[in-house]
Amino acid sequence: MSVPPIAKATLQAAVINAGSNILAQGITAVRDEKQFQLDLQALLQFTTCAFIVSPMTFLWLEGLESYFPGNSEEKDVKENRSKSKSKDTGSPKLNIKNTIAKIVIDQIIGGAWNTVLFIATMGMLRGMEYEAILEQIRNVRVLAI
């Protein structure tokens, strides 16, 4: 039985979130010179957050890929190969314009929505009031490079 890609990606994200949370707790314990004690509640919150947020992120990125394919279509690759008469390996060529468009759109729109979704999900999992979650979202600051 084959596992759907969205389920695989979600499970991978949950494992990565769990691992990163354990690592963060460990780093905090070392930094604060305290004995490591796993905060199971925080671990479960971050892991649960991944199960909620990851499918939406997966669908967002799939949608971007469908509108802005990262590789040239097979037809375009064959046409380019016959025009240039070069020895091509037959692998699709990276569409740089679409790749840049995906990065820009994802960083501006996807990043903003993902941040809001993360804050809202973690707030709900922590039992925060609706107004407190909204206040956290309002207080998000964009870091300029």
UniProtKB/TrEMBL annotation:
InterPro entries: Mpv17_PMP22
This protein's UniProt keywords: Membrane, Transmembrane, Transmembrane helix
Intracellular or extracellular location(s): Membrane
Broad class of where this protein is predominantly found: membrane
One term under GO cellular component: peroxisomal membrane
Basic and acidic residues: bias regions: 72-90
Membrane topology note: Multi-pass membrane protein
Family per record: Belongs to the peroxisomal membrane protein PXMP2/4 family.
Name by which UniProt lists this protein: Integral membrane protein
Source organism of this protein record: Aspergillus sclerotialis
Organism phylogeny: Eukaryota, Fungi, Dikarya, Ascomycota, Pezizomycotina
